[in-house]
Fold this sequence. Notes:
By secondary structure, this protein is an alpha/beta fold. The chain has 16 helices and eight strands.
Amino acid sequence: xxxxxxxxxxxxxxxxxxxxxxxxxxxxxxxxxxxxxxxxxxxxxxxxxxxxxxxxxxxxxxxxxxxxxxxxxxxxxxxxxxxxxxxxxxxxxxxxxxxxxxxxxxxxxxxxxxxxxxxxxxxxxxxxxxxxxxxxxxxxxxxxxxxxxxxxxxxxxxxxxxxxxxxxxxxxxxxxxxxxxxxxxxxxxxxxxxxxxxxxxxxxxxxxxxxxxxxxxxxxxxxxxxxxxxxxxxxxxxxxxxxxxxxxxxxxxxxxxxxxxxxxxxxxxxxxxxxxxxxxxxxxxxxxxxxxxxxxxxxxxxxxxxxxxxxxxxxxxxxxxxxxxxxxxxxxxxxxxxxxxxxxxxxxxxxxxxxxxxxxxxxxxxxxxxxxxxxxxxxxxxxxxxxxxxxx
Length: 392
């Protein structure tokens, strides 16, 4: 975009050290390095002079040394700054160590602070923030804090009469922190929550439009408001309530079914709920209802941690009530879950004897029954950690 807009010189700083230019043609470098070399060559082919150096912008010594060397060598002055660095380090706030917090905040905030000090009078000063500052995923306390702080920095810089803007981006597909298999799972989970991803070309077009606005801070993310509201049943966010219409605020459940469940005697209520649970489990596991054993632990049928969250979320939508993130592990069979939802049994009465299958899900199910007292966020991270250990 900057090349299209007429910028003829780009100074690209990043922590990755590129090989000497005379080695570029030889190839054989790691994929990330090859991609950066190709990107620089493409820019240069369009008439842009590219000055690329390995500099950690959050390292004051490195950044100041580069700025002094750049000026000493007589290069044209820097007229604009775009700060797009980021790193992740998931930890619950209750388990956050100072080192884990600082590692994430340093890249975003300290880098922005140093750039602010070194380049006070540039024409453009844009900080790439994140939707996580407003809608963080479980374990992103440090990342959310770092990005929220960028908004404060931009506001402070504006108050001094200098150019500043933060753009809190949603997800860009196939880039940065969401590349690879882990990224694909992240995209799928976010999409379930109604938070869609943007094609990079679309995001760049939006960036171009935002460069012409006067707002200090903006948030950019495609949201499916109906799915967004449904995924947060019982966990409404007042910050966003004004953006939801009555239709979008609807939960998408079957109100007639809920009425029948509410008015039924306990035996009939349990029968109705078993039908809902059976249908939902069948959809999540992709197993025909007729082949789904009501008394077999769902973990032994292939239910993994993300599926368990999906099962809980679907049942919340269908029933219009908040349910624990560990529902599928505390009540691991269709029969046990139906009985619990109907009020027939308490957790202490649930007894399941099921040998784990080769997938190891049975072991996970047994282990996760011990986390009933965890919050949704704690349960989500525990389940994700268990899934990562299995490599699934």
